[in-house]
TrEMBL record:
Residues 82-106 are annotated as: Disordered. It comes from Nocardia aurantiaca. PANTHER family: FAD_NAD(P)-BINDING DOMAIN-CONTAINING PROTEIN-RELATED, L-ORNITHINE N(5)-MONOOXYGENASE-RELATED. It comes from the Bacteria. InterPro entries: FAD-bind_Monooxygenase_sf (IPR051209), FAD/NAD-bd_sf (IPR036188). The lineage of its organism: Bacteria, Bacillati, Actinomycetota, Actinomycetes, Mycobacteriales. This is NAD(P)-binding protein.
């Protein structure tokens, strides 16, 4: 990767990891992912208050990637822990998480 990437992806939430995954699938590898927090997860990492959950039924919202569907939500409106687990690295995302610059204020 060059010192000046072609693409800068802001955040490791659903959108950021999705953008990085799709860029990789399209053969674009010259990108960097910047994350302000100390770990991946975006809004579901930050919102940990009691009772935090989806306000839209998860199957309708399609809160999963088309290339990694999640048919096994624990309840209709998935709780924060389920959403957070969905954003944790899995084998196809390990490389993306490894290159993410966490605690980045750039």
């Amino acid at each position: 990767m060059s010192s000046s990437p072609s693409i800068v992806i802001i955040g490791t939430g659903f959108g950021g990891i999705g953008m990085a995954s799709e860029s990789t699938r399209a053969g674009i590898g010259d990108f960097v992912i910047l994350e302000r927090g100390g770990d991946v997860g975006g809004v579901w990492r930050e919102n940990t208050y009691p009772g935090a959950e989806r306000d839209v039924p998860s199957p309708l919202y399609s809160y999963s990637y088309s290339f990694e569907p999640n048919p096994s939500w624990s309840k209709r409106c998935a709780p924060q822990a389920d959403c957070r687990a969905t954003r944790r690295p899995n084998p196809s995302q390990d490389r993306l998480v490894a290159i993410a610059r966490t605690e980045s204020q750039e």
